[in-house]
Records
---
Amino acid sequence: MNFSLTEEQTALKDSIGKFLERDYTFDDRWKVIRSPEGWSREHWNQLAEIGLMALPVAEADGGLGGGVVDTMVVMEQIGKGLVLEPYLGCVVLPAALIKAAAGTEEAQRTSLSEGLASGETLYAFAHTEPGQRYERASVALAATPQGDGYVLSGKKISVLGGDCADVLIVSAKVPGDTEASLFVVPATAAGVTRHAYPMQDAQRGADIQFSNVTVGADALLGARGKAQAAIDYALDVACAALCAEAVGAMTELQKITIEYLKTRKQFGRALGTNQALQHRAVDMLMHVEMSRSMALEAAVSVDNPDAAARAKAISGAKTLVSQACRFVGQNAVQLHGGIGVTHELNTSHYFKRLTMISVTFGDGDWHLARYGDALLHAA
């Protein structure tokens, strides 16, 4: 199998790389962090001009029809640049959710995808609830039928991009249904209250309260009470994207650490001349390259029609990548010494992002258990 990038994918990678070098330096990123919004609309529009918002949307729906490997290329560059703009939460995840949930309902799929592909409309998936942990099928937010529509009541937490989203895709359960349903809700709808906050890695999230939010029947995304397959698919897509982002971040962090070992002197000689530290740096590189292979495995497995096989591949990759995030991040900090945890050095920013990636949408232990379940299912 040929794992080389195509000319188009190489051009995409180079375009994002030039944007990061020109407009997303460490100082530029600090300015964004300190802004009230915590992300830049100007940078968002620049990414849209490159074509990133339209990339995961099918051509029939107004997008570029990019594949999972294209998304992997983008996410790896986003990881290298520690991009703060909510590409994962407001593009990759919603695009997968709309694709899977709307299915053959072309009019609804196209209507929702147009704004997403242009970058004009930001979507966020409101799914995680208090006490839910990582269990994807555990949905308590109620969608009570009322007339031709529904009334939504409940709370969602840690919604990626929930602070800036224009539209929320909300998982809720109709009384009597065995599975959740998905509803498209304007973020400014009456009864929707958002509490936005920065997370440990400077990404943004929000807790969202739904207090008797009334929506029409047309707010239902896909079939009622049959959303679990779409939710699982979208979260698997997000996990594969996170694996690719982790590879980008770990690659850059390992590079930074090597440069530090070459230049930092102690007792008259560079730290890198210490053989024990050389071994530690090689171990970091091994984890990075292992993660690269697993991220590729996850990417090519995303569209596997066999849900159990997809779960096995995605969770296997996320388990090993989560372990690598911890190993590479912690060793980078140790090899830098005390300065490695200061805000003034980008090492700490990579470490925080890798730590968050390792637990987002399921930590290593959760995915290891899911991997085991998939093996038992296959047996």
Note: The beta strands are 123-126, 142-146, 149-160, 167-172, 181-186, 192-198, 204-215, 220-221, 265-266, 269-270.
---
Amino acid sequence: MTQELMLAEWNARESIAEAMIPLIGRLYRESNVETSIFGRLCVKNSVINLLKSHRYVRQIEGEELSVVDTFPVLERVVEMGISNAHVDLGKLAVNFRKQGGGDLGAYLAKELAPAMESEENDGQDVVLYGFGRIGRLLARLMINRSGADHSLKLRAIVVRKGKADNDLEKRASLLRRDSVHGSFNGTIQVDEANEALIVNGNLIKVIFASAPEEVDYTAYGIKDALVIDNTGMFRDKEALSRHLQSKGASRVILTAPGKGVKNIVMGVNQSDITADDRMLSAASCTTNAITPVLKAMDDKYGVVNGHVETVHSYTNDQNLIDNYHKGDRRGRAAALNMVITETGAAKAVSKALPQLEGKLTGNAIRVPTPNVSMAILNLNLEKESDRESLNDYLRNVAVHSKLQKQVGYSNSPEAVSTDFVGSRSAGVVDALATISSGKSCVLYVWYDNEFGYSCQVLRLARQISGCTLPAFPIEG
């Protein structure tokens, strides 16, 4: 193909992608319909990222897919008038092609029939208690998907009053700029008079308090709020229950492993949640990264036992330079050393997967990178496997199973840690690093211990708030 033809083809696809953007936005704002390409969200995406999502299908699924295939699907979805659903345009386009084509309208009418009967949700008021690394990412994620009334509504942030006179401006600046995740995609204004931030048109009250029970959320028009505690200070049931003493708070999620409360890893044990649960833990970033992969492995091959070694980016609880620290080794300079430390993630897996109780050991090494970590799963299995079939199974899990949002898959020979910054998966299997021999295997799982974990927290928040959208096409 000549240069002129290649450029003409690119321009044609870019033009189609540009035409898709307003339709995707309208579906989301007016009908509460999220769209994706094999799990990659299209909502509020750029033209280039939309085109890249189609390219991803070729890399992972081995299928050629372009906007030429998905645009007709999108147009029909708009015409159908469905609402309150998550529609994967890529999967619908590929499945339609695999069945031999025909009448696209009839095919979609059959596949999306249940979406015609979906119920609306009034949304959920959310309060972020704490505004650190995870808190600010949760804010970004909620604000980015705040265009429809159905969604999680970030109403307030609770923090301790800082010593600086320009406290609000400093909070806004931390939300606006991030050395790891880049600049915030939107506008942020500081409303000093009302002690609030106005972010992409959303008014977010900043409440200064030193204890959970001090806050009266109803005074700010907030009721039946879901409080997401990302301070890490209230980790047991008694301490966490202090949030429920606040007027206007009805439920609380802890963004750390919790004692005396259910630890939920979305994709694995969310069925354990009952209507009576008022306090839940979203477990740890590492537990979320490894548990879905371990579930997939146990379902097919059976896990006899194993060891989990995490290579984890340094965190705020370590010292930048050598200084006193109550923990062993964590007092040494984080950006200069690899630091051996403990992790409870391996044992915590059994809270979501009871069948693995006592079968896993674990350790951790903190390394001089600010974000993205890796878990190395050294497993002994009940059934034999080989590298090719094992990888093929995990690829299918990542693309077609109910663990699609949790398990990612990479087969790039050049992938390194920074390539996984911003990954929405709880963990991403590096297929080229897989080792398999008989009944033993070693799996390498990347995870954005900040962003990927934050996505899992919000999946839990949507689940207990009734804001999770049914996904189409229905797998299996």
Note: The longest strand covers residues 303-313.
